[in-house]
Structures are given as C-alpha cells and as structure tokens.
Amino acid sequence: MKKKKKITKAKKKPVKKAAKKPAKKKAGASKKSKAGKPVKGKKELKKEVDLQALSDLIERGRSRGFVTDGEVLNYFPKIEEDISFLEQIYDKLEEANIKVVETNQLIELPKEEISEKELEEATVGEHLPDAVQMYLKEIGRTPLLKGEEERELAKRIEKGDQEARRHFIQANLRLVVSIAKRYVNRSPNLSILDLVQEGNIGLSRAVDKFDYRRGFKFSTYATWWIRQAITRALADQSRTIRIPVHMVETISKYTQAKRRLLQELGREPLAEEIAIEMNIPVDKIRHIQKIS
Question: 68 forms bridges with which residues in the sheet?
C-alpha cells in the first residue's frame, strides 16, 4: 500500500499593507497658483466684475442724480437672466438717491413710480379708436390691488392657482396701458393695441417671476418686463432691416451721450468725443451713425 503524503500547510507570509494613496481633490476645490494663492473661479470673477460695474454705474448716477434704463442695460447686458441681481441694482441706486429714467425721455424726467391716479387715468380713452375704448372700459372694471392682496395672490400663484394668476394679471392691465401710451407713434407698424398686447406678454412674465418675499411693489418690478417687451417689439417691427435689441439699446445710449455732449460743448460732438464718453471704439460709433 502506498503511504499517504503528509500535507503540510504553508505558513502565511505577513501581508504588507498597501500605502494609502493621496486623496483626490474634490471637484470645485479652489486651485492654487504657483505662488500658493488660490485662483478665482468664473463665478467669483463674474461677481467681482458685476460689483465693479455697479460701482461705476452708481458713480455715474451720483454726478447727475439719475441713470437711464439704457445705461443699466449697457453695464449689465444679460441682466434679464438674473432678475434678483437687477433688484439689488435698483436697491443700491435707491439707497444712493439715484433715479432710473427712460433713455428717450431725458428732457422731462418721469417719475420712477406710477401713481394710482395715473393707473386710474390709464383707462380714460379720449380721442382713441372705439376698439381701444372698449378694451379700456373692460379692464377698468377690475379694481387695483393693495399690497396685502398682491401678497396673498402671489402665494396662491406659487401653489399653482391659475385663477389667482388670471386675477393678478387682470388687475395690472392698466399698468401696461399706462406704459404703452408712452411709446405710441414710435412705429407706423404698431398701434396702441399692438403695444398693449406686447406689454401684456411682459406683464405675464413678470407675474410668473415675481417673488413677494422680497418686499417689492409689483408695479415697480413689472415695469421693467413691460418696457422690455414693448421695446423689443418696436425693434422688431419698426425697421425693414431688423436691428438686434442689444443694438437698439446701444443706439439709445449713443443718442443720450450725443445730446449731453451737445449741451456741454455747445456744438455737434465729434465721433471720437462720443466714443470716449461711451467708452467704445470710434469705428463702432461710425457704424451706429450709419444705421441710426
């Protein structure tokens, strides 16, 4: 018989512990430059640029007591994408006692707030077509909202109450008419009703984006959206060759700068002088002069 071989268990060798790998840096962690200083991210840089632009805008406003809506757009071209920051801008300007006025009405400085009396008068349709008078009569039946009513409706809208949204819009249609009247005769292609319709689109957007928690009066907030909707429509319709909205705003700023320099110098300003005032290249001024 064959002898069974003894099976001896091999002694286990001590297992060396693997050296710990250095932990990977979390995404978004601030990078450091060679000098050891943290490199700023895009958001931080944008915030710094925005704050500097706001500081420059306030400084400009302090020198004359006002800034124009065109200047706000020039300093912050994409402000519509960040309405909460727009509200901060208006807050800072208000704290500095600086008014925001319409670019096209620099000679007569309008009130920043539209009074209740003006809203009531918005439904008075003297010398207006019958269709317009009928519309004014219809919207005049809905009473204006008080501050507390605005907040209550806004809370309901936030919960998806479509009836509250409809009522909120209906009660603010006079605001649209009041603003639209200022733009009558700016374009042969747009009647007062066309302007009101465009303004109503802006009003609808304002209702959807309004945050009652910030404590702003809705009419102040909505005015921005209504004006933007109307001026965009004018930009689209009033020219055979369409000029982009940002270019229309630049032209408005050019007109305002030219008028101011004309008053200061007592003569027609040169393209170079306007370029310095607007802080843009002379070639761009000449391009504006060709198309405006």
Answer: 101
Positive or negative, the CA dihedral 66, 69, 71, 75 is positive
Taking the CA of residue 25 as centre, how many other CA atoms within 13 Å lie in the half-sphere pointing to its CB? 6
CATH code, 285: 1.10.10.10
Tokens encoding 103: 């670019």
Rg (CA), the chain: 30
Whether 181 and 122 have beta carbons less than 8 Å apart is answered as yes
Can you give the pLDDT at residue 167? 93
pLDDT in tens, 209-247: 888 887 777 887 888 889 888 888 887 765 444 556 667
Domain count along the chain: 3
pLDDT, tens digit (0-9, with 9 covering 90-100), for 175-212:
998 888 888 887 777 888 889 999 999 999 999 988 88
Helix 218-237 to helix 83-95 angle, to the nearest 10 degrees?
A: 110
User: What is the value of pTM for the model shown?
Assistant: 0.45
Burial class (CB in 10 A: 0-12, 13-18, 19+), 10: exposed
Statement to judge: residues 211 and 100 lie in one domain: no
On whether residue 63 sits in a domain, the answer given is: yes
At 99 the three-state DSSP class reads strand
**H-helix or E-strand spanning residue 138:** helix 130-139
With a cut of 50, list the residues of the chain below it in pLDDT: 25-35, 37, 39, 103-112, 124-125, 239-241
